[in-house]
Amino acid sequence: MSAKRILLIANPASGRRRGEQRLAVARTQLEALGHAVTAALTESAGHATRLAKSNAPDFEIVAALGGDGTVNEVA
Q1: Given pLDDT bands bounded at 50, 70 and 90, which one contains residue 66?
Q2: Whether pLDDT at 4 is above 80
Q3: Distance, CA of 59 to CA of 51 (rounded, Å)
Q4: Contact in structure between 19 and 41 (CB atoms under 8 Å)
Q5: Contact of 9 with 75, CB cutoff 8 Å
Q6: pLDDT-based confidence at 16, cuts 50/70/90?
Q7: How far apart are alpha carbons 14 and 71 in whole angstroms?
Q8: Contact 6, 29 (CB under 8 A)
Q9: Longest dimension (CA), the chain
Q10: Model pLDDT, residue 33
Q11: Closest CA to 24 of 48, 35, 40, 13
């Protein structure tokens, strides 16, 4: 598998407010596989959509970590 540029977008309030912790775990695991990972935390409703749209051209993968709302915003 070749290394990818990955943007992880996470909602810090998701998962009983463990979104930031889960983001750190995912980032560590992906970096251990050789991927270049950038992490971003959402700040408000609609922020995940803005992050995904404005940054998508710079990444091969844009992924959402969080609840249904975050995933729907990024999709």
Answers
A1: confident
A2: yes
A3: 12
A4: yes
A5: no
A6: confident
A7: 11
A8: no
A9: 35
A10: 97
A11: 40
Amino acid at position 72, single letter: N
Q: What is the CA radius of gyration of the chain?
A: 12
Tokens in use for 33?
């596989």
Position 39 pLDDT exceeds 80: yes
The architecture of the domain spanning 5-74 is: 3-Layer(aba) Sandwich (3.40)
Evaluate the CA torsion angle 58, 66, 72, 44 in order and state its sign. Answer: negative
Distance between CA atoms of residues 57 and 45, nearest Å: 22
Rounded Cα–Cα distance for residues 61 and 35 (Å): 10
Could you tell me the two tokens for 61?
A: 């993968």
In percent, how much of the chain has pLDDT > 70?
Answer: 99
Domain positions in the chain: 5-74
